[in-house]
Amino acid sequence: MNQERVFKVLLGPHISEKATMLADGKNQFVFKVAIDATKLEIKNAVEALFEVKVADVNTVKVDGKTKRTARGLGKRKDWKKAYIALQPGQDIDFTSSAE
Length: 99
Description:
Blueprint: H1 3-9, E1 10-13, H2 17-25, E2 28-33, H3 39-50, E3 54-62, E4 66-69, E5 72-75, E6 79-86
Antiparallel strand pairs: 1-2, 2-6, 3-6, 4-5
Helix pairs in contact: 1-3
């Protein structure tokens, strides 16, 4: 997988209370990913970018919310998130600086 596709597949970490609980308890991490990304692409991107071994990838397509605006109804874009389970002994640290 080329480096350009890695950054197009992984859009960023999804930080929430549930994601933090999964990271602490089950060694799983949640990422926002491209809507057309496959599980194999996501696995290869995480392994290439963070230099860890991925055990399992689960994906969820999240429907955009319908919101009322001054001009009527509007809809937010659909997006996709991936739950990444790492092999035992592996870890991703988002808070450390790259020094």
